[in-house]
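Problem: given the chain below (163 residues), write out its structure.
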Amino acid sequence: MSIVPPVASFLVDAPLGWSADWAWGLPLIVLTTLIHVFGLSLIRLRVVRHFNRISQMHHPTAVFVAIMGATTLSATILHTAEAGIWAFAYKTLGALADYRTAVLYSLNAMTSYGHTNINLPDHWHLMGALEALNGWLLFGLTTAVLFDVIQRVWSVLGGLEQG
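Solution.
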């Protein structure tokens, strides 16, 4: 026996209007942010490890491009997994009919793309807005890490060019 349906039913039918959106949205923001920070930390550790080997490479610029490509791909996969968590919540709560539609809606909301015609039921609209807020936070964190990675590589490349 699962506790999710009774709890979900209670939160959906709560008389305070948007209480279910907040009750589900805020923990999802915290969860995905923690996952994102952990994932970005792992990505950054691997990148720093590779940067320490750049001075031994024959084509450091090519290595820079490859490492930035891999870093960007890894961050994109991380964002997609986090959108999948939101999609799972939408499907589990009955806000969207199937997981495929929920993933598309979630990626649309998280990126603030806004070009799909998929909508949440009225009583879940705030949750979609909270996911968009979550997307801004996650993309900000990703931008900071990518900026840090670029600065580190350029400092290493600058040292190689002067040496």
